[in-house]
Amino acid sequence: TTRKPTKLKKLQGTLRKDRARKNEWTPPEGTPPMPAHFGADARREWQRVVPLLLDAGLVTLADGSTLEAYCEAYQRWKDAAKLVTKEGQVVDTPFGPKAHPAVRIEQAERLQCMKYAERFGLDPSSRSRLAAPKQKETKDVAEEQLFDGQLKVVPGGK
After folding, report:
1. Quick one: 15 exposed, middle or buried, by C-beta within 10 A (0-12, 13-18, 19+)?
2. Could you tell me which of 41, 58, 19, 23 has the C-alpha nearest to residue 110?
3. CB 91 within 8 A of CB 79
């Protein structure tokens, strides 16, 4: 089986410090650049998922090629689906009616896309195994000082 990164184990709530790897490489944070060769559907999918993954802390600069493969599978899936919608699921051949070749491509690329999506927690099943990261708390300094006794309420004060 593939080893899970420590960050993923933390999100899933399965991290055990006694089993954590020492000096695990952590890729630099940031958004990988979107490949220029993307078609319209791949571009829209990249623009949809990357902000979600960044907010969850699940994407780094090192994840560009995996995201690229995901979006390319998504593009091929959508291209095949459009072709099937336009031409129909069945085509006439000299040997009689057969399933349109794009039907098989559509199914294979959808499956591939779903496998990549699972790696990023983009499906309900894999997402259910992730814990939401703790939200950063904003401090109200005046309120904190008031409760610590550092500020005093003065009657009639401005």
Report:
1. middle
2. 41
3. no
Q: Give the global pTM.
A: 0.69
Q: What are phi and psi of 152, to 5 degrees?
A: -125, 140
Give the pLDDT of residue 157: 56
Q: How far is CA 103 from CA 69, 79, 83, 116, in A?
A: 20, 11, 9, 20
Q: Which residues of 100-133 are buried (b: 16+ CB within 10 A; e: fewer)?
A: bebbebbeebbebbbebbebbbbeeeeeeeeeee
Query: Residues 6 or more apart from 122 whose CB is under 8 A from it?
Result: 49, 52
Query: What's the pLDDT score for residue 56?
Result: 82
